[in-house]
Amino acid sequence: MQYLMTDLHQRFIGSLNRNTPLVIGETLQVGEPDSVKSYTVVGIDASRSRDRNVKAVTVIACSNSTAQAAPNE
Fold first, then answer.
1. Which of 4, 15, 66, 71 is the most buried (most CB within 10 A)?
2. Residue segments in the chain with a per-residue pLDDT below the cut of 50
3. How many CB atoms are located within 10 Å of the residue 50 CB?
């Protein structure tokens, strides 16, 4: 599944490919090993894309200490 990540203002952050579906409240760590950024999923919208394999995901940035406290895959 491909996800298009946007912030609360609908600004594009990036894309993410995953084999497992995302759920609201999940914490993601995205980026290169030297510049990892953490995001929390706050919304998932499958209707914004014509392709069934692409979903829009609204995320908020979170601090690394918050991301480490939440379960990751």
1. 4
2. 66-67, 73
3. 6
Q: To the nearest whole percent, how much of the chain has pLDDT over 70?
A: 82
Is this prediction's pTM over 0.70? yes
40 strand-pairing partners: 27, 60
Block residue for tokens 């995001």: 39
Give the three-class secondary structure for 66. helix
User: Measured between alpha carbons, how far is 57 from 11 in angstroms, rounded to an integer?
Assistant: 11
Please provide the distance, in angstroms rounded to a whole number, between the alpha carbons at the two ends of the chain.
Answer: 16
Strands (DSSP E) found in 7-51:
12-17, 27-30, 37-45
